[in-house]
Amino acid sequence: MTKVKTGDSVRIHYTGSLLNGSVFDSSDGREPLEFTVGTGHVIKGMDEGLPGMVVGEKKTLQIPCAKAYGPVNPDARQAIPREGFPDDIPLEIGTQLQMQSPDGQALSVTMVEVNETTVVLDANHSLAGKDLTFEIELVSIN
Q1: Which CATH architecture has domain 74-122?
Q2: pLDDT per residue over 53-109, tens digit each?
Q3: Domain limits of the chain?
Q4: Domain 9-70+132-141: CATH class, spelled out
Q5: How many whole angstroms separate alpha carbon 49 and alpha carbon 64?
Q6: DSSP string of the chain?
């Protein structure tokens, strides 16, 4: 049987959960996720967990935060004066916005604190600082 190796294009079904069992993402009801192993299109722990698998095999990957979305970076939080926001943007905790980084990259941020004078935006990934579990099934290797 052919085993997955770095550079192979694969298709997997997956369910991602936190250590407490709550599911944050799944391919259930969707097409399998397709990517090339080892190219950084998925988190490092997933790239490292696939080599050696065969089609039809199921596996549980325990991925520490360092090989997932990394630790929470306190420098990725920034307080912005409240008056710097247009009136049509709701200033509510949890509001997600798209911004542009200094180098022109699109950057997703979330409002994590709102007070009378400032709004704190957080550019950390919502799963930063969390260890993850993925139940995966290898559907195909190309």
Answers
A1: Beta Barrel (2.40)
A2: 999 999 999 999 999 999 999 999 999 999 999 999 999 999 999 988 888 889 899
A3: 9-70+132-141, 74-122
A4: alpha beta
A5: 12
A6: --B--TT-EEEEEEEEEETTS-EEEE-TTSPPEEEETTSSSS-HHHHHHSTT-BTT-EEEEEE-GGGTT-S--GGGEEEEEGGGS-TTS---TT-EEEEE-TTS-EEEEEEEEE-SSEEEEE-S-TTTT--EEEEEEEEEE-
Q: Say how far residue 85 (Cα) sits from the centre of its chain.
A: 27
- Dig out the tokens for 21 from the structure: 């069992």
Closest CA to 62 of 83, 45, 82, 74: 45
